[in-house]
Amino acid sequence: MTDTAKLEIRNLRKSFGALVATNDVNISVRPGELHALIGPNGAGKTTLISQISGEMFPDSGQILLDGNDITRLPAHKRASVGLARSFQISQLYNDFTVEDNVAMAVQAQSNKRFNLLSDARKDAALRQPAKEALQRVGLGDAGHLMVSELAHGKKRQLELAIALSLNASVLLLDEPMAGLGAEESLLMRDILLDLKGQYAILLVEHDMDIVFSLADRVTVLVYGKPVFTGTPEEVRHNPIVRDAYLGEED
Ligand SMILES: Nc1ncnc2c1ncn2[C@@H]1O[C@H](COP(=O)(O)OP(=O)(O)OP(=O)(O)O)[C@@H](O)[C@H]1O
């Protein structure tokens, strides 16, 4: 399994003072796999994602992408080696159009390459991937709208479009369903279903219906430590998981 992992987390550890938020974590995400990370509030899911995306560095351990060690690579360089974290709504530019927001992300990632082109070609080279990414998340007709005009669900779709426009093969998705209404959730579920199989996806999500219906494998994190990794069916029936986490739901 180690040989074929797209993303591999080895013995990762991160403490905040006395609190061990990431406690010797080992997780692998295979090519095309949708791997969900679940756990109670405070289990360390966001802390782990932040280390994988490079916003925070671990105390020890390794993060490998396609077998290459990216543990200390700065966050802004990770997209160019194939790893994208879904943007957060707080990072969107409200006073620009939807398409501008995606085009700016494409440009920010590949500044040097585009600076060599003439303005017209540069514009086309930025607009085309932006349009394709928007199409992919169901925002093909919304490119001209100002971000400030978008409903919450559409902003979430835009976050995902920005991640897709970066041409990564590994996606880190941190609670894409958060704050969505029932209809918006169904739409997001369909979008994720469409992406499934084409990207290696590490998905943090509290919505268990989504996790159990979409994930190939699930890792359960409790107090910073993975207690079990398996298929949704195995996770559902595992006594350790039920005691530690799902117990109250059964
Ligand atoms: N910068 C920080 N400084 C100190 N403690 C932190 C910091 N970031 C997170 N923690 C602590 O680390 C633990 C893990 O937090 P984290 O946000 O990663 O959990 P989570 O699983 O994402 O939770 P949730 O599901 O509520 O989002 C918590 O106890 C949290 O209080």
From TrEMBL:
Q: Where is the signal peptide?
A: none
tRNA processing among keywords: no
InterPro entries per UniProt = AAA+_ATPase, ABC_AA/LPS_Transport, ABC_transporter-like_ATP-bd, BCA_ABC_TP_C, P-loop_NTPase
State a single Gene Ontology molecular function: ATP binding
In terms of Gene3D superfamilies, this protein maps to: P-loop containing nucleotide triphosphate hydrolases
What SMART domains does this protein's entry cite?
AAA
Q: Where is the ABC transporter domain?
A: 7-248
UniProt KW Lipid metabolism keyword: no
Keyword tags: ATP-binding, Cell membrane, Membrane, Nucleotide-binding, Transport
Q: Which CDD domains match?
A: ABC_Mj1267_LivG_branched (cd03219)
Name recorded for this polypeptide: ABC transporter ATP-binding protein
